[in-house]
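Posting this for the archive.
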Amino acid sequence: MPRNVDKPAHRIEDIHAMGDFISRYKGVDTSRLGLLGICGGGGSSLKAAQADKRFKAVATLSMFNSGVVRRNGFKDSQLSTIQERLKQASEARALEAAGGEVLYAANTEITDEMADKMPYELYREGHYYYHRTHAQPNSTFRYTMSSLMDLMTFDASTNMDLINQPLLMIAGSKADTYYMTEDAYNKATNAKQKELFLIDGATHIQTYWKPEYVAQAVDKLVDFYQENL
């Protein structure tokens, strides 16, 4: 408590814990553990793999660097308000600690009309994917305002030189999030081998569900893991 806390360290620890669990599962070959992270999970997976060498091959699909976006805004659109938002997060934590109201970010109910006016394709398509065609009633976009203290100081692309495992990063060629994949990929200077694979014509959200794009991603992942595990 409170619910909807979003701390990057918790997500990364969950990935380490997955390694703990599967390593003790009967019949598992611990020399052949692979890691796949999608969207925000891609950023968490990169960070986990920097330290956790039990994962012998690492791949991401449509990687989303949540900390950088929470800090700088999508495509650096909120640079001028960083300190203001950090102050809000700090005040929200103080309020929680004093037993006061829990404040939430991204807590607005988005209508289709509001989504259609959003400036970024990721958010427009994401609205219809997460709220309409693939909605999950227990999943929302909201998180505690105090979480921003942790989110805004997180960057999945720092220490990418610690990844020495084989690395595959997949993104749509038309994804407006591609800049995050490119940045992390370029910083992975010590990966044993690395490949950046672009799915031609795909946007970020389309890599989740459009059959021809999903097929390309899966085929590439199968080849990658068969080769490296």
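The mean pLDDT is 97. Strands lie at 33-38, 55-61, 104-105, 143-144, 167-172, 194-199.
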